[in-house]
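Board notes, transcribed. Complex of a protein with 2-phosphoglycolic acid.
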Amino acid sequence: MRKLVAGNWKMNGTRAALAEVAALAAAEPEPPCDVLICPPATLIAEMAAMGAVPVGAQDCHAGAAGAHTGDLSAEMLADAGAVAVILGHSERRADHGETSEAVAAKVGAVWRAGLTAIVCVGETEAERDAGRAAAVVSAQVSASIPDGDGALVLAYEPVWAIGTGRTPSLEEIAEMHGMLRAMLPATRLLYGGSVKPSNAAEIFAVANVDGALVGGASLRAADFGPIIAAAG
Ligand code: PGA
């Protein structure tokens, strides 16, 4: 499966940061994998208009339009030029109380708009320590993905590895991705959580790892470029 390296800028970046996208396109003119950048929604239209890299969003509302102050629909994100939407990131599950059922409704909305849903799952450190990682993740997958047809990418992101510099062992990643492959045979499976230039190649070499969802190291071309190159 061709790998996908997706960047999640989270709540980082003003228009000045678009220079990093231009620098990335110059550094990796023919990337050896699919590349996606998910900037804050304020930058989607302008980044998409650059034509340098496919652009995604970080969340959407389940509805198409209506009285939902501050929210954005998948149709609006598509209209701005987004091709994908990250859904159910652990920061949204924690900060906004998003349940897997709410995530499933958003996946349906993303499919309705013709975009790719990138669904995030992952256990907390307490859940892993209690030996419950596989059970938690499989329950999240089952509840977060609705019936129906649409483009889907799954990102396994252990909560304790996000932004911490810590990662699971390669064996732990292989074990979880093996379970996910059995559940989702045809779906691209990304690993996420403290992926950086120094560990990307070894993570990409793990069985059933079809790419990465990268947070902090996606903000600068000098970090994201080498991660993309490692996916070749
Ligand atoms: P990180 O974030 O690469 O900064 O750990 C990953 C993510 O939250 O998608």
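The pocket of 2-phosphoglycolic acid is lined by residues 8, 157, 162-163, 192-195, 213-217 (CB under 6 Å). Residues 170 and 225 are 22 Å apart (CA to CA).
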